């Protein structure tokens, strides 16, 4: 089990909130610790957004709690009605993420009103906001998230697994049931990579020049994801129509296998070229020669004419495999253009950042 950065930051945020509460002699410092738990976010940008939302949500909870106690007291029925109103207001204002902490603020204020209730309410509200700001400080200073590293390696690992399965399946060497479960796992892995892409997209740069580099990187990573998804779709079709594929004439199956080997080799090379493990000059001097996509389609048409007596379903399923190969090939070609263009304009600006290791 890995000790993740968010686990560490949550612990540090709680300690900081409790420490500040103790230094400021705040009563019930535990409320600050609870608030810090709610406020820890995976990115600095989300943490900033969270503060804005939490201030609004906690104000709603504090105002409703104060008004209800002053007007109706703190009977359990009154607290229940106040909870319903706070939830409704938060939903109307699209502050769904703050509902939990708003209710903590509400209940902590309404629990035991005394003679100096307004002062008590203000202290409770301030204590909770202390926890929120403690979490923001920790997210900003301690272990700032570096999602680019994790994003690249998540895509690269998934792509490597997909490519290995394509090689095996194209040679009739994969287990049908095992491959079926692996395809589902790979879909989930790419879904997690997509979530990491969203988090990386939210990270903010401090200089305009860095913004320009990041904008190009976002395009590259988006296409890395889509190319891996197309590879997985092709693997899925090879798996789904494996009987039809292995019933193909040997010379035609050999042509498809050679095209697949070529495409996945180029795909691997692109992923390594992006992080500087394959020299761009070497790739240009010794390019991997794949069949032209028009030639792949001509092979299918020639086979259709040659075997017109075959049932339509067999040809239709073969066409599904061919179309997936063509689609994957176009994405690989486009990704190669994007990576080559990026490295031409930003040579040396990516290697170190990708190779650094960060806590998961």
Molecular structure report:
The longest helix is centred in the last third of the chain and has 34 residues, at 312-345. Helix 7 (147-170) runs parallel beside helix 9. This protein has 2 domains: 5-141, no CATH class; 147-355, Methane Monooxygenase Hydroxylase, Chain G, domain 1 (Up-down Bundle). With 360 residues, it is mainly α. The chain contains 15 helices and no strands.
What layout of secondary structure does this protein have?
Blueprint: H1 5-23, H2 30-39, H3 44-72, H4 76-92, H5 99-110, H6 117-141, H7 147-170, H8 176-202, H9 208-240, H10 242-246, H11 250-274, H12 280-285, H13 293-306, H14 312-345, H15 351-355
Helix pairs in contact: 1-2, 1-6, 2-6, 3-4, 3-5, 3-6, 4-5, 5-6, 7-8, 7-9, 7-11, 8-9, 9-14, 11-13, 11-14, 13-14
CATH architecture of the largest domain: Up-down Bundle
CATH superfamily membership of the largest domain, which one?
Phosphate transport system protein phou homolog 2, domain 2
The value of Rg in angstroms is 29 Å
Structural class: mainly alpha
Low-pLDDT ranges: 356-360
Helix content: over 70%
Nearest-integer average pLDDT: 81
The shape, in one word, is elongated
Would you kindly provide a brief summary of this structure?
The protein is mainly α.
Could you name the key traits of this structure?
79% helix; 360 residues; elongated; Methane Monooxygenase Hydroxylase, Chain G, domain 1; disordered C terminus; mainly alpha; 2 domains; 15 helices
């Amino acid at each position: 089990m890995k000790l993740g950065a968010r686990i560490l930051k949550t612990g540090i945020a709680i300690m900081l909130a409790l420490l500040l509460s103790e230094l400021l002699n705040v009563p019930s410092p535990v409320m600050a610790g609870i608030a810090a738990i709610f406020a820890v976010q995976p990115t600095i940008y989300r943490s900033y957004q969270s503060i804005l939302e939490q201030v609004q949500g906690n104000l709603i909870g504090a105002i409703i709690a104060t008004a209800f106690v002053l007007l109706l007291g703190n009977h359990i029925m009154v607290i229940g009605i106040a909870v319903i109103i706070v939830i409704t207001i938060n939903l109307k204002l699209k502050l769904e993420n703050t509902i939990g902490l708003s209710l903590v603020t509400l209940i902590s204020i309404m629990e035991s009103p005394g003679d100096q209730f307004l002062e008590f309410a203000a202290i409770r509200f301030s204590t909770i906001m202390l926890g929120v700001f403690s979490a923001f400080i920790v997210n900003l200073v301690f272990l700032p998230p570096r999602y680019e590293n994790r994003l690249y390696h998540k895509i690269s690992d998934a792509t490597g697994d997909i490519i290995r399965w394509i090689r095996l399946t194209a040679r009739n060497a994969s287990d049908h049931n095992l491959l079926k479960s692996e395809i589902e796992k790979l879909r989930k892995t790419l879904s997690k990579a997509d979530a990491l892409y969203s988090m990386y997209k939210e990270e903010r740069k401090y200089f305009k020049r860095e913004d320009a580099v990041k904008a190009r990187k976002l395009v590259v990573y988006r296409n890395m994801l889509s190319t891996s998804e197309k590879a997985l779709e092709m693997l899925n079709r090879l798996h789904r129509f494996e009987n039809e594929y292995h019933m193909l004439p040997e010379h035609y199956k050999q042509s498809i296998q050679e095209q697949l080997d070529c495409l996945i080799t180029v795909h691997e090379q692109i992923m390594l070229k992006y992080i500087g493990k394959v020299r761009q000059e070497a790739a240009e001097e010794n390019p991997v020669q794949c069949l032209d996509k028009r030639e792949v389609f001509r092979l299918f048409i020639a086979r259709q004419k040659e075997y017109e007596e075959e049932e339509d379903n067999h040809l239709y399923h073969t066409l599904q495999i061919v179309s997936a190969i063509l689609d994957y090939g176009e994405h690989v070609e486009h990704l190669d253009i994007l990576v080559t263009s990026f490295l031409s304009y930003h040579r040396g600006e990516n290697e170190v950042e990708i190779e650094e290791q960060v806590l998961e």
